[in-house]
Amino acid sequence: MAGKAPAGDPVQDAPEVGAPQHAAAGAKAVAKSLRAAQQQMGVRRTALTLLRVNQAGGFDCPGCAWPEPGPGERHLAEFCENGAKAVAEEATLRRVTPAFFARHPVSGLAGRSGYWLGQQGRLTEPVLYEGEPGAGGDGHYRPVSWERAFGIVAEEINALASPDEAVFYTSGRTSNEAAFLYQLFARRLGTNNLPDCSNMCHESSGSALTETIGVGKGSVSLEDLYKAELIIVAGQNPGTNHPRMLSALERAKKAGARIITVNPLPEAGLERFRNPQTARGLLGGGTALTDLFLQVRIGGDQALFREWNRMLLEAEDAAPGTVVDRAFVEEHTAGFEEFAAAVRAGGPGRVLEATGLRREEIDAAFDMIRASRATVVCWAMGLTQHKHSVPTIREVVNMLLLRGDIGRPGAGVCPVRGHSNVQGDRTMGIFERPPAAFLDALGAEFGFEPPRRHGLDVVNSIRAMRDGKVKVFFAMGGNFVAASPDTHVTEAAMRRCRLTVHVSTKLNRSHTVTGARALILPVLGRTERDVQAGGEQFVTVEDSMGMVHASRGTLPPAGEALLSEPAVVARLARAVLGPGDTVPWEEFEADYDRVREAVSRVVPGFEDYNARARRPEGFRLPHGPRDSRTFPTASGRAHFTAAPVEYPEVPAGRLLLQTLRSHDQYNTTVYGLDDRYRGITGGRRVVLVHPDDAAAAGFADGSYADLVSEWTDGSTRRAPGFRVVHYPTARGCAAAYYPETNVLVPLDSTADTSNTPASKSVVIRLEAATTT
Ligand SMILES: Nc1nc2c(c(=O)[nH]1)N[C@H]1C(S)=C(S)[C@@H](COP(=O)(O)OP(=O)(O)OC[C@H]3O[C@@H](n4cnc5c(=O)[nH]c(N)nc54)[C@H](O)[C@@H]3O)O[C@H]1N2
Ligand SMILES: Nc1nc2c(c(=O)[nH]1)N[C@H]1C(S)=C(S)[C@@H](COP(=O)(O)OP(=O)(O)OC[C@H]3O[C@@H](n4cnc5c(=O)[nH]c(N)nc54)[C@H](O)[C@@H]3O)O[C@H]1N2
Ligand SMILES: [Mo]
């Protein structure tokens, strides 16, 4: 039997704290994943569902974007503990019905935790809330027909003075087919206002890679990881967020690779991995992964990579032709001389201060870098969510370029994506700054002139709503209010809208922060069968390494009223644009092969899409730098860049806070209240601080603090009542969970160029708690 949703909100601010662990996965992870799944869906459904995850003919895991091995190499259970939790969260047998909304006014729901909201189960019917703008609302969501719901959206959109007064947000679970239709709809309407979760995630990677190598995506495949001699994992916690990556790292290790981890926190998964697919991993000690752990200070990575690059140049000067790949640099790159001159002139600078590392540690890593003939650098949010993230990632690229480590086996850049189809959504045109070539092809295919003005990203959408310039907010998935920075500012911005619409599978915080009118439109998830007029459909997704493959749900839909995401967009488009539109929306809804045919003509690399999507292994998208050392930049070369070295300045007595994920959450979806590998149980309001820093601020382990962030304009923000945990993080640094800490991230604190919220560098002070 499946377990019931909790009746009340559990107490979340009195966690128990034990010792952090030093190994990830193992038998405990298997037991945990089965337990989580069975509570949501019972024993039989658990077995039937989990066996279809990431198998040919099954569905793509809705967890992370880590790729699957080729069909011949997959295990019977090609998922991980956290993938199982993601599946269980969607395949749950719990339901939110109209009776639920009749019991709970919006104001009541707003008082609940995100955890409680998510535990209520799957949304089953479209519902509408109508209230006064800004009133917060003690009204209720009430059932509404799909036709009326689309009619309301059409009314509000058609009443706008300009299509740019609407924004269309996307979260990265949306399939290629739905994403393509969604961006097409926005552009038919006349706007590029397509903010997406990527703006808060890997936008810095996309910006840096597009500028330097001409393609905003990673350049490695799984095979490259297996062949690498050195893998640097910087700013990433794969044990929790990409657990299947640990199998790849283990395999690379066994083939002789060495691993350097760069992180302010010692993360258990990178220390040691007990592979649940092998008897030795389940029962034995597992494999030690990290050879060298560099406990960097938050934001010190640019200085660190710059120093390694300086040392590479110095070594090259001492022994010409042995360190820098001269042939590659001459044939394929631009800007080497300027870069080398700037780096030499800068000298070691303040690298020890910026990184908090000892000289010997930097030197030891350098020896490994120099010895490696094929290096892969992997990274995630630890590199992307800082003010200077874009130059940081460009510095990583500089290192690989010096060594000729792009476009050869065993080497390359590996930004590890988050959401399972966030990369595919961008490929399908979900982008507020679309390239002209994409718009040209789209316009030619559908016979219209797409808008050319750049649209709004996430942060600029919030500003525009706050300032009354955007009046309709539409979200294809996600949890905008909880995921965005400066929670109170974002909430006030949403409340100013005339209409807010969420296409969702589960209830979340964003549904409780309404515009004058608000709609929740429930949809099918990945795990469910999708039958349209043209028969049973499948969708496609693109993983972090540019492999596109099919995903086919197997479970019956969670409710009879649910529509698929492509159907929602197609019907919305007909309601808003009227019946005579040049786009064949009805045919697209009936048969997704028709959507893929259009994509195959609009997006390069998707030729023969329908046939290739049906191959069990799917197909790999072309990537010039990886495939042929062709760099589609303006100059046709890869670019060295020499930005000044930056690192966060932290005034005395302050800490630099990073906001990160626990082991029991998927972004804003909280599965449970534990963070097993970090030794935290039964609560999320914790702040991890180095014992010496905590002592200096007068906070014993187990005491309670308010976190107060300080922004450059003099403003402060407060998150009250966090249990202080003495934890072995880097000196001067602190860590606490997102989304509870998003109130602390100022809206204007973003990365240069990418405009990604700087969620990993928030200057805070600890104050004795005003509440506990
Ligand atoms: N189970 C599960 N899986 C997920 C997600 C989830 O929430 N749950 N989220 C998905 C999404 S959308 C994403 S984007 C990814 C996120 O995957 P991660 O990026 O691994 O997620 P975070 O928890 O934000 O962890 C950031 C890591 O970077 C480190 N770090 C912080 N600041 C710095 C720094 O300045 N320098 C360095 N070198 N390291 C730093 C932190 O200590 C931490 O280990 O995971 C995806 N997969
Ligand atoms: N402070 C801080 N803030 C952050 C981050 C951080 O590290 N620190 N990380 C950022 C990152 S990397 C990201 S990617 C964003 C994430 O931002 P979002 O993608 O907006 O947030 P999620 O929590 O992933 O969205 C969860 C919701 O998606 C809906 N959903 C789930 N599956 C489906 C589906 O198949 N279809 C539809 N239509 N809806 C579905 C459910 O209703 C669920 O409640 O948050 C960002 N915010
Ligand atoms: Mo993400």
From TrEMBL:
UniProt cross-references to CDD domains, sorted A to Z: MopB_CT_ydeP (cd02787), MopB_ydeP (cd02767)
Originating organism: Streptomyces thermolineatus
Protein name: FdhF/YdeP family oxidoreductase
PANTHER family: PROTEIN YDEP, RESPIRATORY NITRATE REDUCTASE
Domain Molybdopterin dinucleotide-binding: 655-762
Family: Belongs to the prokaryotic molybdopterin-containing oxidoreductase family.
Domain Molybdopterin oxidoreductase: 122-505
Start and end residues of each stretch annotated as Disordered: 1-24
SUPFAM superfamilies hit by this protein: ADC-like (SSF50692), Formate dehydrogenase/DMSO reductase, domains 1-3 (SSF53706)
Domain of life: Bacteria
Cofactor(s) the protein requires to work: Mo-bis(molybdopterin guanine dinucleotide); [4Fe-4S] cluster
Gene3D superfamilies in alphabetical order: 3.40.50.740, Dimethylsulfoxide Reductase, domain 2
Keyword vocabulary terms for this entry: 4Fe-4S, Iron, Iron-sulfur, Metal-binding, Molybdenum, Oxidoreductase
